[in-house]
């Protein structure tokens, strides 16, 4: 094991800002991107629902 | 032989992609955990760089993915141009944001690695500059697509842009040989053994596979959203929505 203690691990031999700055930003990006994709999917589904609603209203008006 | 043309239809590909996403996402998480464990707890401290070298476990995979995704994106663009298949253009469009993300991460982690090892975050060195150009190519691709209202014309224009931009990939890859760069030469090559400790190389390779699985999962998820957006007037999308939304 390389690390004597948790503090030593987080200190990264004095390179903490560089190592953690790299890893934290990478982790954030790789967490946020799937959330953005999910939001895009939900927006597309909402648009589909709106289109269907509009089509149904038009059909109802034609029937009435 | 299986009829591969069947999968070139968005209608067939949509559910198939949906089945593949959780597998690749799960593989990405597991591989990342294994890779991080090797990178932080198995790999020893580097004799020259101390702990700062641990950035390699994300820097190299991110850089490789940024180049590889571009080649795949340009490949889809070429197929789209040659066969006029809508799904190919959608795949290309789905890959661009992820490629841009990895190009950004390559530059970001590189800057944070450059500071302790070279004494500077940035230098206009051939490797760094050509990677920055790659980021601009991705951003340009997305901006061009957003700027053209007619989707099919946007697809074609972007496909041409993507293909022309391929010229930058060998420039990035060989920059460390062609020019005198501050950036070091390749530590890993197909023709000779890697010039790094086996355990460090193993950790890096696992992270490469993790990023690979991540990219496939997120690109497939995005192409599904793109299919829903573009096929919104097609009957099959509305049939499917009630069951699978």
How would you describe this structure to a colleague?
With 64 residues, chain A is mostly helical. Helices cover 84% and strands 0% of the residues of chain A. Chain A is built from 2 helices and no strands. Chain A is rod-shaped. The longest helix of chain B has 33 residues. Chain B is globular, with a radius of gyration of 20 Å.
Outline:
Chain A is mainly alpha-helical and 64 residues long.
What is the SS-derived class of chain B?
mainly alpha
Q: Mean pLDDT of chain A, as a whole number?
A: 91
Beta-strand fraction estimate of chain A: under 5%
Low-pLDDT runs of 5+ residues of chain A are none
**Biggest sheet record of chain A:** none
H/E series of chain B: HHHHHHHH
* End-to-end separation of chain B: 33 Å
Largest sheet of chain B: none
**Percent in helix of chain A:** over 70%
- As residue ranges, the low-confidence spans of chain B are none
Count of spatially separate domains of chain B: 1
DSSP helical segment count of chain A? 2
Features:
heterodimer, A: 64 residues, mainly alpha, 2 helices, B: 245 residues, 76% helix
Which SSEs are present, and which pair or pack?
The complex is a heterodimer of chains A (64) and B (245).
Chain A: H1 6-11, H2 16-63
Chain B: H1 10-42, H2 56-83, H3 86-118, H4 126-147, H5 151-165, H6 168-178, H7 198-230, H8 235-244
């Amino acid at each position: 094991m390389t690390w004597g203690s948790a503090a030593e691990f987080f200190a990264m031999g004095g390179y903490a800002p560089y190592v953690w700055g790299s890893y934290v930003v990478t982790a954030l990006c790789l967490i946020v991107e799937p959330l953005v994709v999910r939001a895009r999917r939900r927006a597309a589904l909402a648009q589909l629902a709106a289109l269907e609603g509009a089509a149904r209203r038009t059909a109802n008006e034609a029937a009435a | 032989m299986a009829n591969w043309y069947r999968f070139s239809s968005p209608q067939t590909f949509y559910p198939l992609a949906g089945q593949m996403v959780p597998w690749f996402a799960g593989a990405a998480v597991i591989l990342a955990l294994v890779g991080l464990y090797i990178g932080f707890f198995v790999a020893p401290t580097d004799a020259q760089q101390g702990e700062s070298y641990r950035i390699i476990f994300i820097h190299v995979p991110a850089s490789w993915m940024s180049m590889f995704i571009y080649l795949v994106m340009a490949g889809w663009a070429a197929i789209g141009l040659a066969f006029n298949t809508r799904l190919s253009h959608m795949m290309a469009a789905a890959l661009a944001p992820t490629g841009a993300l990895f190009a950004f991460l390559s530059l970001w982690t590189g800057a944070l690695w450059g500071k302790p090892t070279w004494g500077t975050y940035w230098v206009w060195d051939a490797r760094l500059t050509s990677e920055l150009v790659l980021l601009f190519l991705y951003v340009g691709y997305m901006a061009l697509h957003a700027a053209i209202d007619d989707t099919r014309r946007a697809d074609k224009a972007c496909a041409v842009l993507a293909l022309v931009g391929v010229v930058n990939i060998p420039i990035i890859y060989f920059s460390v040989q062609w020019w005198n760069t501050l950036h070091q030469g390749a530590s890993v090559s197909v023709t000779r053994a890697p010039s790094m400790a086996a355990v460090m190389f193993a950790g890096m390779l696992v992270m490469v596979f993790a990023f690979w699985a991540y990219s496939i999962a997120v690109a497939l998820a995005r192409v599904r959203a793109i299919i829903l957006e573009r096929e919104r007037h097609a009957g099959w999308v509305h049939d499917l929505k009630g069951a699978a939304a």
